[in-house]
Amino acid sequence: MQITTKFLASIHRGRSKLCKLRNIAANEDFRKKTIVANSDGNPLKIAVALSGGVDSMVLLDLLHRYNQQQQQQQQRQKVKPIDGTSTSIDIHAITIDHRIRPESTREAQLIHETLKNRYGANITHHIMPILNEIKMSRLEQEARNFRYELLYQKSIELNANIMMMGHHLDDQIETLLLRLKSGTSIFGACVMNEITRFPIIDNLYREKLKQVYVFRPLLQTDKLSIYDYARENNLVWFQDESNFEEITLRNKYRKLLSGNAINKSQLIDHLQSLDEFQESVESSLESLRKEISVDFDTKLLKMSLKIPNQVFQNFNSIIIDRFLYESVSRVSPIGTYHHRFTSFDSKYATINENRDGKSLSEEIFTRNIRHKFTLVNCEFDAIYGDEYVTLNVKRCRLQANANDPKITIDLSNEDWSDWVLFDNRIKIRLKGQHLGRVNIELFDTKKLQREQVRLDKSFREQILSKESGIDSISQLNGVPMVVTDGKVVGIPTAMLYANNTTLQCEIALKCT
Description:
Layout: H1 2-22, H2 28-31, E1 44-49, H3 54-77, E2 89-97, H4 104-119, E3 123-129, H5 139-158, E4 162-164, H6 169-181, E5 195-197, E6 213-215, H7 223-232, H8 249-258, H9 264-289, E7 293-297, E8 302-308, H10 311-314, H11 317-328, H12 360-365, E9 372-375, E10 378-384, E11 388-395, E12 407-411, E13 420-422, E14 426-431, E15 436-442, H13 445-449, H14 457-463, E16 480-484, E17 487-491, E18 496-497, E19 504-509
Parallel strand pairs: 1-2, 1-4, 2-3, 4-6
Antiparallel strand pairs: 5-6, 7-8, 8-11, 9-10, 10-11, 12-15, 13-14, 14-19, 15-16, 16-17, 17-18
């Protein structure tokens, strides 16, 4: 059957892509046997996002059949695990009860009963309700965010680092139409990939937080094929009628696509072209990363890029702009940064080339830009040499009318606080005895001058000691500080704490 063949092909591609994301070598023979192996001898745990709709129910059934076939094949051939690894799978289906519709809780329970009757103990089912109130004015965005947060939390709890989702070809087309309407760049039009790091949390802060990979094996399968498989295999699924109500723009496109009011084959061709473009860009970026030296200062959250002059001649501007965009994301505090590529390239990155637009790399190469400039709330300093251009990048200082990204945390007990996202750049959690309420805010020497906060002499001397590597207090501008009772007691990124405090910090920095 075509859908089964496509699923298996996706599994094989997924093995290779996961190995690349994890930076491990893929064994060709082993790739054909399983998705990825656990080296500790225990079964690999895979989570499946199960809405109960036909897409996710078909995905779950395909994965179950794949797992059964793998186990039977190993028993027949007496295949021994490689290097003590396990190739069997523990499947965990996770249903999120959005509680938007009155019947959703009952449906979640019916899904549970359906799985129990069909699969018995071969699949473990978890139901997780969204307890937050979802605003109808932001229905699609808020529901998605809460859903992904719960799926991530459950994956970590289960120690499942692969989350399968039932997105399919028609979803890709809907997403493409939505992004084209919003005026996206050519990269935004590339829509979903088969394998990605988990969105929202894991994609940016994977240095400290555990990695979870999203795997979408049905992206090349259309909706009609999914329905055919479900009927042929007597699957039970639950139809969410709100998916066909025109309450969101996506639903409107879905209705148009189901009625053949939109030329689907032409859009599929566009998707194929965008996939090829994305692969070409990634290949060029891989080469470019070997040419440009990037030094990120984890203490002061600033960056220096050393770009050989020949790079501007050997690589297309859009490739260099993409590299700069990805690199500077670690420094920029803009919350919607992933929508801001056109700040770097509004000339070549639009769907239709815009000759009136600008390319940052071209502006730098032709020196058609001041050597000091601001972009995406960052200060850039371009230093031109005979062989290199050095770009120094740091966060802009707070302006008089800007909101200070201050966060208050209660440290009344001795437990670690929850992780908090500070300034859209860094995840922080704190711990301390009898500290009460503390603030995390941006360090700025202006605050010291205005006596908004105090920096004790002993802590100042500690900051400027040889061991710290910090030459002047002004270097701390733009990094997070912890303040209690108006006094600076910690600089988390530099791991510096006042002598008389019990404060402890853990941080997770942005990654590209």
